[in-house]
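seq:
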Amino acid sequence: MSNQQDPNLQPQQNFTGAAPAAPQAPGYAQAPGYAQAPGYAQAPAAAPTNTMAIVSMISSIIGWFAFGSLCIVGVILGHISLKQLKTSGEGGRGMALTGLIMGYIGIAGWVIGLIIFFIVLGIAGASIAAAGVSSAS
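struct:
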């Protein structure tokens, strides 16, 4: 091949002008409007919770760790709140029942625990006395 240029080739031109405009797409009609979705009904307001039912449940649960003293308060407030729930439209029956049940179980547990404690204490005292050990020096 020779170093000669092809006579059919034309030198490239520097193109600085804007590109030719693209053909316009045909116009489309506007999309039809849709009706607004129907709204949902607002949820009914929840009935307020009876305060004594809440206090009954909390005091009964804490009473398990407080020597059963608060369990008594939980049982009393649980009965009062159940009475109030019958006449008012308040909620909290489950909490009142939880306070009652936990309170009664807590009271029974502490009573049984105290009985066992005093039985063991009596047996220990009797065995020390039987062994002849006196506490006086």
